[in-house]
Design brief:
By secondary structure, the chain is α+β, with helices and mostly antiparallel strands. The chain has a single domain, classed as Creatine Amidinohydrolase, CATH 3.90.230. Helices cover about 25% and strands about 25% of the residues. The chain is built from four helices and 15 strands. The protein has a five-stranded antiparallel sheet. Strand 11 and strand 12 form a beta hairpin. Helix 1 runs antiparallel to helix 2 and helix 3 runs antiparallel to helix 4. The longest helix has 24 residues. The chain is globular. About 50% of the residues are buried. Bound molecules: magnesium ion (MG) (2 copies). The site of one magnesium ion (MG) has 6 residues, from strand 4 and strand 5.
């Protein structure tokens, strides 16, 4: 396979060497998430978790991908290495002085670049004792990512995988967020294609085939209530559920290889 060949519109396939570099970036993301998730407890602030992550990333000589990201709608560039999204916050939570409480669910998203290539992964963890509903939200969301990975086969269309994710989530009485989706990943954090976690007629034209060398960030975002989301406030960073229901988010960066999907953001 040729590096950076693009057999489908806009998609940049990766060589084995490039995928190896992406494994290093992914391994660091995994280490950061392992460590930071281990620090989550009642009373810790999201800002403290971010400080630990920033130090680990800079000590490794890596670049924190989220820090400084400009969103034209937002009133400031993203200020942190982690996104920390609590309870009804779905994604893009800004770390700060919010202290975690028992019963919270915290989604932690981390992205880094090493030697020119990126890794991106997220997990949601429970803070202290959480409700049974919150427990099942975390389990269904994590299981939907595992299911997606098990369904990823060279030659398959993404829509088949997305349909499996959606069925898994909706059969549990939960909803898949539609306004935010996964993405190709490589030298840039966000590359083509868009990787939705649901499938309907509107998706037909953007469907794509899982081919060797494709590298994707697959990231189901699931809510206990309805799928609709909005900005939490005029800062235009934090995304919350419109109905106030809790949300969870699990993400891995994954390479399609001849042997099947390779999780780049695992230990
Ligand atoms: Mg992410
Ligand atoms: Mg991502």
């Amino acid at each position: 396979m040729t590096a950076r060949s693009a057999t489908q519109k806009g998609i940049i396939l990766k060589s084995k060497n490039e995928i190896e570099i992406m494994r290093r970036a992914g391994a660091l993301v995994c280490q950061v998430l392992d460590h930071v998730c281990g620090l989550v407890k009642v009373g810790v602030t999201t800002g403290e978790l971010n400080e630990v992550a920033e130090k680990m990333i800079s000590d490794a000589g890596a670049e924190a991908l989220f820090k400084g990201v400009v969103n034209p709608a937002a009133s400031y560039p993203f200020p942190a290495a982690l996104c920390t999204s609590v309870n009804d916050e779905v994604v893009h939570g800004v770390p700060g002085d919010r202290a975690l409480k028992a019963g919270d669910v915290l989604s932690i998203d981390c992205g880094v670049r090493i030697d020119g290539f990126c890794g991106d992964s997220a997990r949601t963890v429970a803070v202290g004792d959480v409700s049974d509903d919150a427990k099942s939200l975390l389990k269904v969301t994590e299981d939907s990512l595992k299911l997606a990975i098990s369904e990823m086969k060279v030659g398959r269309m993404w829509s088949e995988v997305a349909t499996a994710i959606q069925k898994k989530v909706e059969s549990a009485g939960m909803s898949v967020v539609r306004e935010f989706v996964g993405h190709g990943i490589g030298q840039e954090m966000h590359e083509e294609p868009k990787v939705p976690n649901y499938h309907d007629r509107s998706q037909r034209k953007s469907d794509f085939c899982l081919e060797e060398g494709l590298t994707l960030a697959v990231e189901p975002m699931v809510t206990l209530g309805r799928c609709d989301v909005m900005y939490a406030d005029a800062d235009a960073w934090v995304i919350v559920t419109k109905d106030g229901s809790y949300a969870a988010h699990f993400e891995h960066s994954i390479a399609m290889t001849a042997k099947g999907p390779l999780i780049l953001t695992a230990a």
